[in-house]
Amino acid sequence: MGVNKPLSASAIISAKKQAVFRFILLQFLLTFLISLGIFYLAGGLSSYSFLLGAFSSLCPSFYMAFRVFGHKKIRPAKEVVRSFYRGEAGKLIMTAVLLSLVFLLIKPLSAEYFFAGFGTAILSHWLSPFLLKN
Prior knowledge:
By secondary structure, the protein is mainly α. It has 5 helices and no strands.
């Protein structure tokens, strides 16, 4: 019978980083697949509107994950908390800018599918506890 050694802090952080970035990649892939389904069912306008809405939520989420988990070394708790605050502030600003840019620059746009994509991407974060527990 072998004795299991506890994982080091760096090994735990590395595993969490990989899980978070895998989850974000999964969100991008699921969004793309849903968009393809919408393309076949409702057409191109609805599909790219959905995709733009989802990416308006997922790109800032990727920024936040990179801001918090993008460091290679173990950092003091104060620095980690600062990363969370800066990442969240940047995420909110990026979300507002992306939403504004899409509505100002993209014509035509199906607002229903845009907000459906945005909402789907936000609601997909609820899956993270189930997918990140390993």
